[in-house]
Design a protein that fits this description.
Length: 801
């Protein structure tokens, strides 16, 4: 049906009419989207079946990637592209006067994740399938993904996201493969025939029903699976209030990351984690046992990856299944468990390192808690042998301490590999944050620098640039992204530079149009598009960016002769609903935008734009249009960053601290092609240790700082003077935890250099092209190949249909 555009057109029209029960002229864009989506899924299904059969018959090792987030983005156009049928479809639709872009707009953007960690998981799935690697994702089918953000009077308002409102054409419900999950109740221990056995009685049962989605590799026949679990009522216990049981059960998969600032929310989140882990492990073991009889060899056929600590309950749950269900001894089960599991850490921020209070944990999962206690006791005994008498160390490393279960410790002890996501982050884990674990398990620790899929972030998001690159160096880079380096030989070619400038300009025009429509702000295409898009967080320092803009505003107001290259500062960010500070920064950006954009003279030079509801589909419009990429986290705090890589691949230049993957970007492109500033990670860590930083000194000694900080509360903004008091307090009263004022001067300096560099147009274009040519290293294909070789030990399998 996709062999040529005429055949496609014919099948599409026929299907459209039969599915919708109306004539072509009557059909809506949504009808057209649903029809096309169904056709594509049908087209995928033979490859999907074939892949699964191959995996069964070859019985080689497979990896299962457990993640509480998969930030997929829209799938229709990506699937068309990966299947190699996008041109045929586009042509056929054009004949019918239908624009594929319009149809795409009807697809919801599944936001089953918050940010970097979830988007990385989605890029990894794409790379696994494209590299013909047998690897699948396991996650949760949240009814509502990350909230939709509305801005009302400059404040963020959260609305429930509704990605399933019109159904999901990509998923297949598999009720026959449902798993049962037990919560609450108690454990009865008995001793029969010299064997201990554990019976879970009085438990609340929840059914986990899988929904499978195909993960299509690029121009290969491999179609892997993303299995998302939905919570449904299982069996009612007598005397149970049926309605509340149904409500409590379904609540497990209602929302991504429910508010966890109250105990009620905490229990729900913990339930989600166990729900994901237990259902996934049951399903993995069931599928293993279909082809294999010896469960003691599970690790020869199965690798299970724990994406951050959220699925760390995989350690005790795999132990439980192996001992209580499969009958293995503790030692046998421990060997299989630790040989099967591996773990990635994504952050060193202490508030993100999960610790669960025992009083919540133990009653909810009584058997799992027993097993963790035993793991902890054995681990502490080992430590005692190694460090006799060093109670302090043992207490510090224990899995259970001070009435808390420490999930990172559990994941480290129970896994055979622990990796960070950029060189510096892995080094910080080894030598600081997790040093005591590195000392006892030196070979477990390793680095896997993050990557992004160029198939979404270049081929799909930026077809203009993709074609330009193809015309310049051929198509090899499409399959081997490191071949982008071939572009470097051409960067001095004036034609290439001009064509690149045109591509960029076109994308800036498209974004400018969107800004005009959505924000009612007219931006100058010749201005620098200076972009910071990412979750809103103090450590990411959107505030530093804001203070710089206030500073520029002041200079432009004070000195009519002060000229700079015009700039449009573009922000996009969601703040966690309970994160007061982050929401204040959103308000501050809006107040600043009002001030700047309404000043008749200043607004001709600089503008401030906040793009509402930042998400994958919006990102696909933003990265290609950016000139400057803001990666300005406090050094040591951003584990890697992946937005930095997407910008780079689209020819934006980084303004960044020496943090996360920025450092590796610098190593790739060279110091002349990136703008770095600020404290190094070591300097930040030293300050944190010696406590010698005094933000007040910077406030008192640098007039520019004093002025901008005072403007937060002196009536400069039209809001009530108390509105931004808490932000000022964070800088002065709370001693500026993220060193915003410490890095302010060097940020101003580097930004001045950026402005000057942009005016040397030719040189700027060369720098942009150098960035693109070196971006191949940051392909998630490279990252995934390293995981496959070093951690999971899996090999590709060729699928032929
Ligand atoms: C992010 C890191 O902040 C980012 O540096 C990194 O590039 C990305 O993970 C992928 O490795 N971390 C998270 O998104 C994260 O910790 N999310 C948890 C709150 C869920």
């Amino acid at each position: 049906m996709f062999s040529n555009s005429d055949r496609f057109k014919e099948s599409f029209l026929k299907r459209l009419e039969s599915m919708c029960g109306k004539g072509f002229e009557e059909t809506t864009k949504r009808d057209q989207y649903l029809t096309l989506g169904n056709m594509v899924r049908e087209y995928i299904s033979s490859k999907w079946i074939e892949t699964n059969e191959l995996y069964r018959s070859e019985n080689k090792k497979q990896v299962y990637y457990l993640s509480i987030e998969f930030l997929l983005g829209r799938l229709l156009v990506q699937n068309l592209l990966n299947l190699g049928i996008k041109d045929v479809v586009e042509e056929g639709l054009n004949d019918l006067d239908i624009d594929l872009g319009d149809i795409e707009e009807c697809e919801s953007d599944p936001a089953l994740g918050n940010g970097g960690l979830g988007r990385l998981a989605a890029c990894f799935l794409d790379s696994l399938a494209t590299l013909n690697l047998p690897g699948h994702g396991y996650g949760i089918r949240y009814k509502h993904g990350l909230f939709d953000q509305k801005i009302v009077d400059g404040y963020q308002v959260e609305l429930p996201e509704q990605w399933l409102r019109h159904g999901n054409v990509w998923e297949v419900r598999k009720p026959d493969e449902a798993a049962e999950i037990l919560f609450w109740g108690k454990i009865e221990t008995s001793y029969d025939n010299n064997e201990l056995s554990f019976k879970h009685v009085g438990a609340e049962k929840v059914l986990a029903v899988p929904y499978d989605m195909p993960v299509v590799g690029y121009h290969v026949d491999t179609v892997n699976t993303l299995r998302l679990w939905n919570a449904e009522p299982a069996a009612f216990a007598p005397n149970q209030d049926i309605l509340s049981y149904k409500r409590d059960t379904e609540a497990i998969t209602d929302f991504l990351y429910p508010d966890d600032t109250h105990d009620e929310g905490k229990i729900l989140r913990l339930k989600q984690q166990y729900f994901l882990v237990s259902s996934s492990l049951q399903s993995i073991i069931a599928s293993y046992k279909k082809e294999n009889s010896n469960i003691r060899e599970l690790h020869h056929s199965v690798a299970i990856h724990i994406n951050d600590t959220h699925p760390a309950l995989a350690v005790p749950e795999l132990m439980r299944l192996l001992m209580d269900i499969e009958g293995l001894t503790w030692d046998e089960a421990w060997k299989v468990t630790t040989n099967t599991l591996s773990y990635t850490n994504h952050t060193i921020l202490s508030e993100a390192l999960e610790k669960w209070p025992i009083y919540l944990f133990k009653p909810l999962m009584p058997r799992i808690y027993m097993i963790i206690e035993e793991i902890n006791e054995r681990f502490c005994a080992e430590l005692w042998n190694k460090y006799p008498g060093d109670w302090h160390k043992i207490e510090h490393m224990a899995i259970i301490a001070h009435d808390l279960v420490k999930m990172a410790h559990l994941a480290i002890v129970g896994s055979n590999s622990i990796n960070g996501v950029a060189k510096i982050h892995s080094d910080i884990l080894k030598h600081r944050e997790m040093k005591s674990f590195y000392d006892i398990y030196p070979t477990k620790f390793n680095n896997k620098t993050n990557g992004i899929t160029h198939r979404r972030w270049l081929l799909k998001a930026n077809p203009g640039l993709t074609n330009l690159i193809k015309n310049t160096i051929g198509e090899d880079f499409v399959h081997q992204p490191d071949k982008l380096i071939d572009l470097k030989r051409h960067i001095y070619h004036p034609d290439l530079k001009e064509q690149f400038a045109n591509v960029k300009r076109k994308r800036k025009e498209i974004l400018a149009k969107r800004i005009a429509e959505k924000n009612g702000i007219l931006v100058d295409i010749d201005s620098i598009f200076d972009v910071q898009v990412k979750r809103m967080h103090a450590y990411k320092r959107q505030l530093l960016n804001v203070l710089h803009i206030i500073y520029l505003y002041n200079r432009l107001k004070e000195d009519v002769n002060y000229t700079i290259q015009p700039r449009t500062f573009i922000f996009g960010a969601k703040a966690s609903p309970t994160y007061y500070y982050a929401k204040k920064i959103i308000k501050l950006i809006h107040s600043l935008a009002d001030k700047v954009n309404n000043d008749p003279r200043v607004s001709k030079i600089i503008k401030v734009v906040f793009m509402e509801n930042y998400r994958v589909s919006l990102a696909e419009d933003i990265f290609p249009a950016a000139d400057v990429s803001e990666q300005i986290s406090t050094a040591s705090k951003e584990a890697s960053g992946t937005g930095n890589m997407k910008f780079m691949m689209n020819g934006a230049l980084t303004v960044g601290t020496l943090d996360g993957a920025n450092i590796e970007i610098m190593e790739e492109v060279g110091k002349d092609n990136i703008f770095t500033f600020g404290l190094t990670a070591q300097e930040v860590l030293n300050y944190e240790e010696n406590g010698r930083y005094r933000s007040m000194e910077y406030y008192h000694h640098d007039l520019r700082i004093r002025q901008v900080v005072d403007q937060l509360t002196n009536g400069f903004f039209s809001e009530d003077e108390g509105e931004f008091e808490s932000i000022k307090d964070s800088l002065l009263v709370q001693n500026d935890q993220y060193f915003v004022l410490r890095d302010f001067a060097s940020y101003i300096d580097i930004q001045e250099k950026v402005g000057v560099a942009y005016q040397q147009r030719d040189k700027w274009l060369e720098k942009a092209l150098i960035n693109i040519s070196h971006s191949g290293f940051f392909s998630s294909d490279r990252t995934i190949q390293q995981y496959a070789d070093d951690i999971w030990k899996i090999d590709p399998m060729g699928v032929r249909v």
